[in-house]
């Protein structure tokens, strides 16, 4: 696997000094001259942080097929074909998504299955230029197979540490509670997560809330988030995906998020978006997921420009590539090909993802420096 810490440095084609230095903040006039419109650097080597990826949903299709076979489980055809899931953004659509997700999760039955998922997620992130992965897991789902939520989380954290060492991608873990469970279950998870709080590889870095945004009472989960916050964990719930700006406001009020999973629907109300920017809440935007789950009809409808232009800190993520058939680099390709982001704007998106991460200051500095080198580096492989 490529080591993302080394990728941008290897070039013998650095920008000549006369072309002007790279500006970490964005496009300088010199740079614009040095890199005419249409310069297309390799997005797989753009150093970035991946902040929205679910444990089961991160799985490679081939891995799922192997796990199913080894456990004698027959998978629904939709999990084996190559088409991305496409469902309407209603209860029936979510139900179909959830049923497929559950079928995939049912194939994860041993410690070694769990370790494989983390290891491969880190390997895939490494091959896509990610230097920091923050992966979400609800250990409750895997607890029955490994003797409880405590060992389930320990396995994930232990493998996150090993995978970080072998791939060069620093893997932090977000413990995510589910809206479908009792809020008291969320408190139990928050207390467990708190025991492993940190910011580095194999540590719990944040506490989340996932599943159908239309279900459960958001404010009922506030006590769990308070437990997590007291332990130093960031608040990273989903919100503003299936429900609009009204629910984003509810999440902001009840859970004081540092980041919102999705949050894209905030784009529908300038006041809510202004509040997100003012409160420094980052948005984990997952275009392929939004289209697969019917939130938007196609990539062009995802309000990426609106969010970025409003000053929101955006981190692109893949969410559940197993079902959406679209990994991290594809989200940056969508920004480039559908939303017209130039290389310098794409570099700024990557910087945003790094700054929105919960990585230590030193890790962030290192990755940001690599982005600068990517900007200075060659773009000869293709031109529009
Ligand atoms: Zn998600």
Structure explained in plain terms:
- The chain has 384 residues and is of the alpha/beta class.
- The protein has a single domain (39-383), classed as TIM Barrel (Alpha-Beta Barrel), CATH 3.20.20.
- Helix content is 44%, strand content 13%.
- The chain has helices at 29-34, 61-70, 91-105, 111-127, 143-146, 149-167, 183-195, 222-230, 245-255, 270-278, 287-292, 304-309, 321-324, 328-337, 343-356, 361-376, and strands spanning 39-40, 48-54, 130-137, 170-178, 204-210, 234-235, 238-239, 259-262, 282-285, 314-316, 382-383.
- Strands 2-3-4-5-6 form a five-stranded parallel sheet, with helices on both faces.
- The protein is globular.
- Bound molecules: zinc ion.
Structural class: alpha/beta
What Rg do the Cα atoms give?
Answer: 20 Å
Instruction: Give the SSE order as H and E letters.
Output: HEEHHHEHHEHEHEEHEHEHHEHHHHE
Query: Per CATH, which architecture?
Result: Alpha-Beta Barrel
**Distance from first to last alpha carbon:** 29 Å
**How many structural domains?**
1
CATH first level: Alpha Beta
Number of helices: 16
Strand content: 5-15%
Major pleated sheet: 5 strands, parallel
Bound compounds: zinc ion
The CATH fourth-level homologous superfamily: Metal-dependent hydrolases
β-strand number = 11
Q: How would the global form be characterised?
A: globular
Cofactor: Zn(2+)
GO biological process, one term: purine ribonucleoside monophosphate biosynthetic process
Biased composition (Low complexity): 16-29
Domain Adenosine deaminase: 47-374
């Amino acid at each position: 696997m490529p080591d993302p810490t080394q990728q941008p440095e290897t070039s013998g084609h650095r920008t000549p000094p006369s072309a002007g230095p790279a500006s970490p903040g964005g496009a300088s006039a010199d740079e614009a001259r040095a890199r005419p419109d249409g310069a297309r650097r390799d997005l797989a080597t753009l150093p970035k942080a991946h902040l929205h990826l679910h444990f089961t949903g991160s799985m490679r299709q081939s891995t799922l097929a192997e796990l199913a076979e080894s456990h004698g489980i027959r998978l629904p055809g939709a999990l084996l074909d190559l088409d991305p899931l496409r469902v309407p953004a209603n209860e029936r659509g979510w139900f179909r998504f959830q049923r497929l997700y559950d079928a995939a999760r049912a194939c994860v039955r041993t410690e070694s299955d769990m370790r494989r998922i983390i290891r491969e997620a880190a390997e895939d992130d490494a091959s896509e230029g990610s230097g920091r992965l923050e992966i979400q897991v609800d250990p409750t789902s895997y607890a029955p197979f490994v003797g409880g939520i405590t060992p389930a989380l320990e396995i994930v954290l232990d493998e996150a540490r090993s995978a970080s060492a072998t791939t060069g991608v620093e893997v932090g873990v977000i413990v995510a509670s589910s809206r479908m469970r009792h809020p008291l279950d969320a408190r139990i998870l928050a207390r467990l997560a708190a025991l492993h709080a940190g910011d580095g590889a194999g540590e719990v870095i944040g506490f989340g809330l996932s599943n159908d945004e239309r279900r459960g009472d958001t404010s009922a989960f506030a006590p769990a988030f308070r437990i997590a916050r007291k332990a130093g964990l960031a608040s990273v719930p989903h919100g503003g995906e299936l429900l609009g700006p009204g629910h984003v406001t509810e999440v902001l009020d009840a859970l004081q998020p540092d980041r919102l999973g999705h949050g894209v629907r905030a784009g529908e109300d300038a006041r809510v978006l202004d509040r997100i920017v003012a409160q420094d809440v980052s948005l984990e935007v997952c275009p392929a997921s939004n289209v697969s789950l019917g939130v938007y009809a196609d990539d062009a409808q995802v309000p990426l420009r609106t969010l970025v232009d409003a000053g929101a800190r955006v981190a692109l993520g893949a969410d559940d590539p197993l079902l959406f058939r679209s990994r991290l680099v594809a989200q940056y390709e969508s920004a480039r090909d559908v939303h017209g982001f130039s290389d310098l704007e794409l570099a700024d998106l990557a910087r945003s993802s790094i700054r929105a991460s919960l990585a230590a200051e030193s890790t962030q500095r290192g990755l940001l420096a690599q982005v600068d080198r990517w900007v200075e580096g060659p773009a000869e492989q293709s031109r529009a």
